[in-house]
């Protein structure tokens, strides 16, 4: 399945490759046939990058992104995840709740794995849940030029639901309330919707959205 917001990147090189191939056959030209190769490579690269595989939703608070844990502070509840070019770039809700705020913030395009990425273009989310407020930030990287949100303010979302896409290398920050206990560590690989990044107390185990 192709991620919403990535279809044009997959279809465009496929169409151009097809047109060049038809032209090559029509005029019996090896030049046009060779020109199909770079578009074929682009098609495969974008097909892999914009893939959107089904996920089995995990227990507890789940990772909002595929990638590698850059920071996991149990005292502050802060988690930082770096998404490389080979990772799936569809982001998912870490817990069920209501989108209280969804705000786009202008900024630069520093390398996503650097500290300077804190000032990059981003989309900030505040999600009201029975655990307390969860803050999530989608941060564009050096190559990323677009963050595509899938849900609006006021929407009720379920744990593991797709909430947006960041095109190309990027980063996701998560700030959890004290009711969630972080269980991942720096260097861990995580998968959006599947990997448990924090456990919750038994009394908070239900995932219903607040009224």
Instruction: Give the strand order, joined by hyphens, for the main sheet.
Output: 9-5-6-7-11-3-2-13
Number of strands: 14
Q: What percent of residues adopt helix (DSSP H or I)? A: 10-25%
Described by strand count, sense and barrel closure, the largest sheet is: 8 strands, antiparallel
Structural class: alpha+beta
Tags for this model:
Glucose Permease (Domain IIA); 33% strand; 8-stranded antiparallel beta sheet; alpha+beta; 2 domains; 14 strands; 3-stranded antiparallel beta sheet
How would you sum up this structure, described in words?
By secondary structure, the protein is of the alpha+beta class. The protein folds into two domains: 7-49; 61-204, Glucose Permease (Domain IIA) (Distorted Sandwich). The chain has helices spanning 7-27, 30-49; strands at 61-62, 67-73, 78-83, 90-92, 97-105, 122-129, 132-140, 147-149, 156-157, 162-166, 170-175, 180-182, 189-190, 196-200. It has an eight-stranded antiparallel sheet with strand order 9-5-6-7-11-3-2-13, with no helix packed on it. The chain has a three-stranded antiparallel sheet with strand order 1-14-12, with no helix packed on it. It has a three-stranded antiparallel sheet with strand order 4-10-8, with no helix packed on it. The model has no long low-confidence stretch (mean pLDDT 84).
């Amino acid at each position: 399945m192709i991620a919403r917001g990535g279809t044009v990147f997959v279809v465009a090189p496929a169409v151009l490759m097809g047109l060049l191939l038809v032209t090559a056959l029509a005029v019996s030209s090896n030049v046009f046939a060779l020109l199909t190769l770079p578009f074929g490579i682009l098609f495969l690269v974008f097909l892999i990058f914009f893939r959107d595989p089904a996920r089995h939703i995990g227990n507890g608070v789940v990772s909002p992104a595929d990638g590698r844990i850059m920071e996991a502070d149990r005292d502050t509840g802060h988690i930082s995840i770096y998404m490389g070019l080979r990772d799936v770039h569809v982001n998912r809700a870490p817990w069920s709740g209501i989108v209280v705020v969804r705000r786009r913030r202008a900024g630069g395009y520093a390398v996503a794995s650097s500290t300077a990425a804190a000032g990059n273009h981003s989309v900030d989310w505040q999600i009201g849940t029975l655990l307390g407020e969860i803050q999530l930030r989608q941060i564009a990287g050096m190559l990323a030029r677009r963050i595509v949100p899938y849900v609006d303010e006021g929407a009720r979302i379920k744990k593991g639901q797709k909430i947006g896409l960041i095109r190309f290398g990027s980063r996701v920050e998560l700030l959890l309330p004290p009711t969630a206990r972080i269980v991942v560590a720096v260097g861990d690989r995580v998968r959006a919707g599947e990997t448990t990044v924090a456990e919750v107390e038994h009394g908070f185990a239900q995932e219903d959205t607040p009224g």
